[in-house]
């Protein structure tokens, strides 16, 4: 059976709508807590798919949060081995950093639901399955597009929302995995950030309610297309 390991930083920022899709495709899923679990084990390195999830810290915050050093090393091993890798928000920023790209504050928070604007490369990517369906944005940092990667999407606030490297690496600044039916966990978990940004949680709750069916369907379609591409490539040798 195939294995998918998700590197998690907060309990409620999980695989969301991606989890049942992976299970349906025959993956056994394991969560690894970046803040307390070992990230250099053979089991983590050998996973058929590695997903690095989001979190409320920066990709260059290793002095304050030393575990980022080990997490970055894991991402680099994955990239060096040309193994399937999905990064979401902080995860995408770590991939960008590992590939030599800049990651820095935008000077503004992008929090809420809004559609992506796809580049020509994005129109030819799995993200085309999203159509004009709004996705969840929740970040204050932004990555530059790494050398050799394709820029796939942006928004007015954040021009760099997604990139790919071959078929096996996808970086998403947005939270395409977030299940709008579970938005209350996000609203409570990030209550201080919302208050500091002057964002009314009731507005986000209303947006999520309006997308409770459309967004999971669109996310499933996009992730399915990406996984089709990943699984069509010959498997690499195990580390």
Polypeptide structure, described:
- The protein has 239 residues and is an alpha/beta fold.
- It has helices at 18-24, 42-46, 67-80, 90-98, 120-123, 183-189, 191-197, 201-210, 214-232; strands at 2-8, 27-33, 49-52, 85-88, 103-114, 117-118, 135-143, 150-154, 162-165, 169-172.
- The strands form 2 sheets. An 8-stranded mixed sheet has the order 2-1-3-4-10-9-8-6, with helices on both faces. The protein has a two-stranded antiparallel sheet with strand order 5-7.
- Strand 1, helix 1 (18-24) and strand 2 (27-33) form a beta-alpha-beta unit.
- The radius of gyration is 16 Å and the shape is globular.
Task: Quickly list its features.
239 residues, alpha/beta, eight-stranded mixed beta sheet, two-stranded antiparallel sheet
How large is the count of helical segments?
A: 9
* Relative helix content: 25-40%
Q: Segments where pLDDT lies below 50 for 5+ residues?
A: none
Number of β-strand runs:
10
What is the distance, rounded to the nearest whole angstrom, between the alpha carbons of the first and last residues? 18 Å
Radius of gyration using CA atoms only: 16 Å
The best one-word shape is globular
Helix and strand sequence = EHEHEHEHEEHEEEEHHHH
Give the spatial strand order of the biggest sheet. Answer: 2-1-3-4-10-9-8-6
Helix-strand category:
alpha/beta
How many strands, what sense, and barrel or not for the largest sheet?
8 strands, mixed
The mean pLDDT is 96
């Amino acid at each position: 059976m195939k294995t998918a390991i998700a590197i998690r930083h907060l309990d409620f920022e999980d695989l969301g709508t991606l989890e049942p899709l992976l299970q349906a495709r025959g993956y056994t899923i394991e969560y690894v807590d970046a803040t307390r679990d070992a990230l250099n084990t053979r089991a983590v390195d050998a996973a058929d798919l590695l997903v690095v999830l989001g979190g409320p810290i920066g990709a260059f915050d290793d002095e304050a949060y030393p575990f980022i050093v080990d997490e970055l090393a894991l991402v680099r091993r994955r990239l060096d081995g040309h193994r399937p890798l999905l990064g979401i928000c902080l995860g995408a920023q770590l991939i960008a950093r590992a590939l030599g790209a800049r990651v820095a504050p935008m000077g503004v928070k992008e929090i809420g639901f809004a559609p992506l604007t796809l580049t020509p490369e994005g129109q030819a990517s799995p993200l085309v399955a999203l159509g004009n369906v709004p996705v969840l944005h929740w970040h204050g940092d932004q990555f530059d597009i790494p050398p050799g990667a394709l820029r796939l999407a942006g928004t007015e606030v954040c021009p760099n929302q997604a990139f790919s490297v071959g078929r096996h690496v996808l970086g998403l600044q947005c939270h395409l995995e977030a299940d709008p039916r579970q938005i209350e966990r996000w609203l409570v978990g990030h209550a201080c950030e919302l208050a500091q940004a002057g964002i009314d949680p009731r507005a986000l709750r209303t947006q999520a309610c309006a997308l409770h069916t459309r967004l999971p369907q669109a996310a499933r379609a996009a992730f399915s297309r990406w996984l089709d591409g990943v699984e069509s490539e010959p498997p690499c040798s195990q580390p």
